[in-house]
Amino acid sequence: MSDTILATERLVKRFGGVTAADAVSLSVKRGELRCLIGPNGAGKSTLFALLCGIYRPDSGLVWFNGRDVTSLHAFQRVRRGLGLTFQTNRTYHALSVRQNLETALGAPRGDRPEGAEARYRHVLGRFGLERDLDRPARELPHHQLQWLEIAMALAGGPDVLLLDEPTAGMSPDETLQTARVLKHLNGEGLTIIVVEHDIAFVRELAQLVTVLHQGRVFAEGTVAEITQHQDVRRIYLGRT
Ligand code: ADP
Ligand code: MG
Fold first, then answer.
1. Measured in angstroms, how far is the CA atom of residue 41 from the centroid of ligand 1?
2. Ligand 1 pocket check for 39: Cβ under 6 Å
3. Which of 36, 86, 96, 111 lies 20 to 30 angstroms, CA to CA, from 221?
């Protein structure tokens, strides 16, 4: 048994003439907080979709919790312990915060994953949203809707939280708050994989970073290593 919780083996995904994922091999350990970064068009969202089962690869494998999940749909991977949030917010504005969280559990009262309410209350508390349980989601500002979506993804008690650009549209301050909460959750043992464009956010998380470029793994290392890496600066930060 290894302590790898999620891994890919030479994943390939093509769109016409574009190879959006080009033999991507990745290995994330249990308890890790991994950032996947890269310039626009690097293949981040494609890799996210391959990891969560929205896309099937043209070739290659996805391993999750010691099993080959390559042929499983997203909902099946979620049932096996993958928590997901997307680049576009998927909360229900007409429902209250609590109702959104209960929708995420996908099961009637009494038939829920154990400890679900305590778990989402804990996450809401981390984001300072515990007093907003009965507010309609439409009254929340954008960044709090993003946080609600993270709480929804965590309500079922996933083993891995996978986020695609969780700070899209947030102010620098909201971005830092988000990074801090994710660091806390990781400190409590949650494995987190974040696809992110925002370098300030990645700096704040200060964990292992995988840089994608033209569909390939271009570099991997600590934030310090990555931001010093001449070739990464060239392709990602646009300077030498
Ligand atoms: P990122 O999220 O890093 O900006 P994407 O994964 O969205 O990158 O895109 C990687 C490459 O694949 C880009 O060249 C993009 O144009 C192409 N691509 C992504 N999704 C599709 C799609 N559904 N159809 C055609 N081309 C796509
Ligand atoms: Mg993207």
1. 6
2. no
3. 86
